[in-house]
Structures are given as C-alpha cells and as structure tokens.
Amino acid sequence: MPESTWIEKEIIRDVVQWKKDMRSAGHYVFGNPLKPPGMTSSIVRNEAGDLEVVEAPVEEKSIIFYAFEILECESMEEAVELAKRHPALKFDQASMEVREIWDSLDLDVLGQEHPDHS
C-alpha cells in the first residue's frame, strides 16, 4: 500500500474476519502483519558483488508491504479469487501480489536447462 496509508480498526476487524473465513473454508495456512519500516527492518542487497546492509526506511521506498498471507488453494485462479476478497484492497492504490510457493527447491525445480541437472 502507499506509504502514507493509515490502517483503521475497522479494516483490522475485517482482515481478522477474512482470516477466520479462509480458515473455516480450509484455505488459511499462516499470515501476519509486518512491523513498519524503520522499527526493525534492514535491507541486505548485493551491490556489484558486495553485500550492503541498509537500515530501513530507505529514501526510494514508496510502497510498504504491510502483511503476508499464505493460503492453500487448488489453483492460481482460486488463489486470485480469494485474494480479491481481502479487505486491504479497499484502500485506493492498494495491491496484492499472488504467488505460488514451491514445495521444495531441488534440481526438479531448476529444470533440465540447469547445468547440474542429471
């Protein structure tokens, strides 16, 4: 969400209800809000081969990740439909990224084009 977004108690109640609904339907696995940038966050990044640690907040930020949710779904389409019901999307300019989580990271995930694949 945009950096200046203020989360009201009503939205928090709606998010808690959304989580309860997802849990009742057998979809909810785990999720939590994230502390605001500057409280406990640092950014570790690779700058031309050197690891750099930057204490957040950083100047170039304009989007804040407020939370993450993990759902168990049969398909990406189902995950998108469930995400569309999340109360955070009531905010103007809010967005939600939906991604699949790999079950494991092994050579099967890397694919045949990976040089270590046998």
Automatic annotation (TrEMBL):
UniProt domain YCII-related: residue ranges: 8-102
Pfam family, one: YCII
SUPFAM superfamilies linked to this entry: Dimeric alpha+beta barrel
Coiled coil spans: none
InterPro entries: Dimeric_a/b-barrel (IPR011008), YCII (IPR005545)
Gene3D superfamilies referenced in this protein's UniProt entry, alphabetically: Dimeric alpha+beta barrel
Family: Belongs to the YciI family.
Protein name: YciI family protein
Organism name: Ponticaulis profundi
